[in-house]
Write a structure and sequence with these properties.
Blueprint (H helix, E strand, L loop, with lengths): L10 H4 E4 L4 E4 L2 E3 L4 H15 L1 H27 L4 H14 L4 E10 L4 E9 L2 H10 L8 H15 L3 E7 L8 E7 L5 H12 L3 H46 L7 H13 L6 E4 L6 H11 L7 E5 L5 H9 E2 L11 E2 L1 H4 L4 E5 L6 H13 L1 E2 L8 E2 L3 E6 L3 H7 L4 H7 L3 E3 L10 H16 L5 E2 L1 H9 L5 H15 L4 E2 L6 H4 L8 H22 L4 H8 L3 H11 L3
Parallel strand pairs: 8-15, 8-16, 9-12, 12-15, 17-18
Antiparallel strand pairs: 1-2, 2-3, 4-5, 5-7, 6-7, 10-11, 13-14
């Protein structure tokens, strides 16, 4: 069959189908049909397993071998004498196979000089299509196996090294793939070296060894990461145990995940020599967190010195922080150490740091950065070694934007920021806090108040608590004082709490929180009493009948 007749052939006329043997043959070579999606997934696995460069070279070499063999088979089948006819036949075959619509746009061949130069245009490349489906657009051409195929096919046709390069690719978002090919001597030496490395730079054995080495490295890295994860899990368990002991020793109530995270952050940063900024509304427990950071740090044996920056004038605060010399101002009868000196080898707690005057902020920044201060009226600086932990209920970012707080001081103080959520955002902690505050207040005031009514607890949970934990503690203390029996009723609560409306959408969640916490409280009391209902009722401060009714409601046996 003349080679020009290939243009009009159908695939079924080129291939020999043998359904009785489960074979398809191209001349004497067996071929198989694979889905483009399967090849795309294989390509993706190669990239993810071996990396882009190794996957690219493997696919190029696979394509090179495939193209070289196809050229030999077609030459034997059709017997062309002009290698240019054979090259064009390869474009037809690739199109018939559905791999890519190939068109030879220019082909120059000088047999005497063994010079080959060709330009080819591809449309609907399956390889570019699969790359876009699997990975999206690429900054570089992606038809690796097809470039290998055309290079191998051309090399077999012309009987010499011919290499193609893809200049633009559909995988880059271009309308078609454009490529150029030349004989070996037609490429610059550096390009030829790169081509030979891609196609011939390592034999299969060395490539396999290289891949095996990579696999071993990945396995070692995986084992190292698993070891690190296990070590970190142990560290986290130790950290949480340390936090739990500290919280239990201080009778601090923690039930919400948000507060548990706050405590873990504090425990993590405590051993580190970093400044810490604790943010939270008034009454949320900022001082407890600061004290925990100090006690859990290497400075725990040193002093914890606190100063409220909002309670002192600028002049007095400067004297408190940095000290003064005798006669530096009226009333300075003697030299005085500043709190930076007093807190040496310990922690200096700057409460409400957002209220500090701008002029004093500059001096504070220098003290933190340089670890030295200058007493008011003194000429020589003094070296200090105090860790600074600050707290505020102001939004310091907004203060920086408003020009009332120095940006450089904010970033210096905020090397590590801990934000404490307000009580209204962790209502699940209200019932256990109420019972703890009730126990403490009843013991201190010597009153026989042991329980709280369901309605009173509901009112406490639904209230927004602008004063947070501190306001809750005072409300419970007042209720213990006002209680007329052994249980707190709604009438015993502060008027704003007793008459407060639930925030929009929070009534149902409050009731759920009550039920969940009350059920857990009863269950624990039953466990401690060994299931004895009378002792459980006494411990909870309710009657056995009430206990029985609540057990029935919550499904406790």
């Amino acid at each position: 069959m003349p080679i020009e007749d290939l243009q009009h052939l159908q695939l079924s006329e080129i291939l020999e189908f043998r359904p009785d043997h489960g074979e398809i043959r191209l001349h004497d070579q067996r071929v198989v049909i694979l889905s483009a999606a399967a090849m795309g997934l294989l390509r993706k696995e190669l990239v993810e397993t071996l990396g882009v460069e190794i996957a690219r070279r493997l696919l190029m070499r696979f394509g090179y071998a495939d193209g070289y063999h196809d050229a030999i088979v077609l030459r034997d089948q059709y017997g062309w004498t002009d290698p240019r006819d054979g090259f064009r036949a390869g474009a037809v075959l690739h199109t018939l196979e559905g791999i890519v619509q190939a068109r030879v746009t220019r082909l120059a061949y000088d047999a005497g000089q063994s010079a080959v130069e060709a330009e080819v245009s591809w449309e609907r490349s399956y390889e570019a299509e699969q790359h876009l489906n699997q990975s999206g657009p690429s900054p570089t051409p992606v038809c690796w196996s097809l470039i290998g195929y055309v290079s191998g096919y051309a090399s077999a046709c012309f009987g010499q090294e011919v290499y193609f390069r893809e200049l633009s690719c559909v995988g880059q978002g271009r309308p078609r793939c454009e490529l150029i090919g030349r004989h070996a001597a037609g490429w610059p030496p550096e390009d030829l070296e790169a081509f030979r490395f891609d196609f011939q730079g390592a034999d299969l054995g060395r490539e396999v060894n290289r891949i095996q080495g990579l696999v071993r490295q990945q396995q070692e890295e995986l084992a190292r990461r698993e070891h690190d994860v296990a070590r970190r899990e142990r560290d986290i368990d130790v950290l949480r145990a340390r936090v739990d002991r500290h919280v239990a020793a201080r009778h601090f109530i923690v039930r919400s995940p948000a507060m548990q995270e706050v405590l873990e952050l504090a425990a993590r940063v405590a051993p580190l020599e970093l400044t810490v900024l604790v943010y939270g509304e008034s009454g949320t427990g900022k001082e407890f967190i600061v004290r925990m950071i100090h006690e859990q740090s290497t400075r725990g044996g040193g002093p914890l010195v606190a100063v409220n920056c909002a309670a002192l004038t600028e002049t007095l605060l400067e004297s408190e922080l940095f000290g003064h010399t005798r006669g530096s101002f009226t009333g300075a009868m003697r030299d005085k150490m500043g709190l930076f000196e007093v807190a040496t080898d310990g922690t200096l707690f700057l409460d409400e740091v957002g209220e500090m005057a701008l002029s004093l902020q500059a001096k504070l920044l220098r003290a933190i950065q340089e670890h030295e201060i200058r007493r008011v009226g003194a000429e020589r600086p003094i070296q200090v070694n105090a860790r600074v932990v600050a707290a505020t209920n102001r939004d310091l970012r907004a203060a920086v934007a408003a020009g009332t707080f120095r940006e450089d001081l904010y970033f210096r103080l905020g090397a590590f920021i801990i934000s404490i959520p307000p009580l209204r955002d962790r209502r699940e902690e209200i019932p256990p806090m109420v019972h703890e505050f009730l126990r403490r207040s009843a013991a201190r005031l010597e009153k026989n108040v042991r329980a709280i009514s369901h309605d009173a607890m509901t009112a406490l949970i639904r209230y927004r608590w602008p004063g947070n934990v501190r306001e809750l503690e005072h409300a419970v203390e007042r209720a213990v004082i006002m209680a007329r029996g052994t249980a707190i009723a709604v009438r015993d609560l502060p008027p704003e709490v007793a008459s407060g409306e639930a925030p929009a959408g929070e009534g149902a969640s409050a009731s759920l929180a009550i039920g969940a916490n009350e059920r857990e409280l009863i269950r624990k009391a039953l466990d401690q009493a060994g299931g004895n209902r009378r002792r459980t009722a006494e411990a909870l401060g309710i009657s056995p009948v009430t206990l029985w009714r609540k057990m029935k409601r919550y499904g406790l046996s």
